[in-house]
Amino acid sequence: MEYYKFLRQYVGKKPLILPGSVVIIGNKQGEVLLQKRPEGRWGLPGGLMELGESFEEVALREVREEIGLEIQRLQLLHVYSGKEFYTKAPNGDEFYSVTAVFFTDEVEGNLQFQLSETLDVQFFDPSHLPENIVGSHKRFIEQAYKNGERP
After folding, report:
1. Please, are residues 23 and 74 in contact by the beta-carbon 8 Å criterion?
2. Is the dihedral of CA 25, 18, 135, 132 positive or negative?
3. Bridge-partner residues for 94, per DSSP?
């Protein structure tokens, strides 16, 4: 059972602090890889930390699980946290996210995904992101590519 689900058994819908990682995967054209999730929104590959994992291990595991790629040479861009990262999910669960944002352009393997987690995967120009993107992920990308420069 995922750790946050285990905690929910004890705290119900009360706020949790949920650490996790996302990865901005860039290509040679300066585009960013996004995945379309089952709820229809685009976002960066990533997810929540399990017991004993580092932020880097979360990033590696989640990219492998969600889109089938092996990534190397992660560059930590920023860790986002604080009251502005409070979320109340549609089911009423409350949480504050602590998200480590990494960048890499070193990728091996072929895109593979299960429709239960990922509906599509595409590269996007960071200045022309889809409208239905996770808000915090849009912020992460915009900050990473500020001034039109690549991380």
Report:
1. yes
2. positive
3. 88
For residue 20 the two structure tokens come to 């996790």
| Distances 111 to 42, 45, 48, 100, 137 between C-alpha atoms, Å | 16, 12, 21, 23, 21
Segments in 12-149 forming alpha helices (H):
55-67, 135-144
Backbone angles phi, psi at 9, to 5 degrees: -60, -25
Residue 50: what are its φ and ψ, rounded to 5°?
-105, 165
Walk along the chain (151 residues) in steps of 10 and give the mean pLDDT of each run: 94 97 97 96 97 98 96 97 96 98 97 92 97 97 88 88
CATH 3.30.450.20 fits 3-8+17-148, yes or no: no
Q: Where are the domains of the chain?
A: 3-8+17-148
**Residue 26 in contact with residue 105, Cβ under 8 Å?**
yes
CA distances from 131 to 30, 31, 119, 125, 137 (A): 19, 16, 16, 13, 12
pTM of this structure: 0.95
Strand partners, 65: none
